[in-house]
Amino acid sequence: MSGRLSDYDYDLPRELIAQRPPERREDSRLMVLRREQQTIEHRQFVELKMLLSPGDLLVLNDTLVVPARRFSNDGAIEFLFIERVASRRWKCLVKPGRKMRVGATTKIDNVTLRVEEILPEGERVVSLDKDVDLYAGGLMPLPPYIGRESDEGDNVRYQTIFAHAPGALAAPTAGLHFTQQILSEIPHTLITLHVGIGTFLPVRSENLAQHRMDAERFFISTEAANKIDNAHRVVAVGTTTVRLLESAKSRGGTLLAQEGSTDLFIYPPYRFRAVDLLLTNFHLPRSTLLMLVSAFAGREFLLRAYQEAIRERYRFYSYGDCMLIL
Fold first, then answer.
1. pTM of this prediction exceeds 0.70
2. Where are the alpha helices (DSSP H) in 42-195?
3. Does residue 243 surpass a pLDDT of 90?
4. Longest dimension (CA), the chain
């Protein structure tokens, strides 16, 4: 097991980065990885139910992506509003940063924003001259590798069909493949982890032990905790669900209803206590998401599967295909 950043790299042809979702959510391909046999199968997402066993429970993240992307009136400054920290203060990312030093001002609609503070990772704390919801009128914060502006279609397709709790800056993309019909045929429960920017920030240290994740807020209901504790096998839908379940499960093996935050960073070697199977999309090289899946599947086996996915022309990242790790 490697704790070096350079061991989680691979080359991906740009044309395999999905720029739009498939025509129907369920039209994605599904690569199946069997860890014990070290085998790879090529299936379709609509076959998911046939790959599960009686008593298996899907656990899905019901966070809802907020339209957090805004532009200044003159179009010169792009904002990603991370969270409201007070009635008239927001934490945000800005581009280009050189135009928004401490004291700089700009306008969005009829609201004046002033930079009050620059945080260590470059985020800005801005004050507003009016108490307004800046998500109103905002755009979906599509990942940078989707090389286009978001449109009306993304307002629907960059949300899961079960999204309920507002607060995410990115979609839990493994859940994007589900339709109401597919979900109705598989036992499932919902938990909440609000995906923040920390999940996607680059790992800058070659030594993974030196990387620190930003905390992300979560919630698990009593009903969900009971279902998960009584499941034959827990099928985590997405890496965000894995991080939440692994953070919340007690050392004694019990999952309790709770609310809090987690900064858990999972990378090899890691002993999983809460998750038995994983459904996940394909992730960026050198990302914390790829490291988490490597810990679950085994790094060498996973990277071999990624090379096969490239040869087989799978679609990668948020709007791309997925894999089930058994």
1. yes
2. 152-157, 180-184
3. yes
4. 61
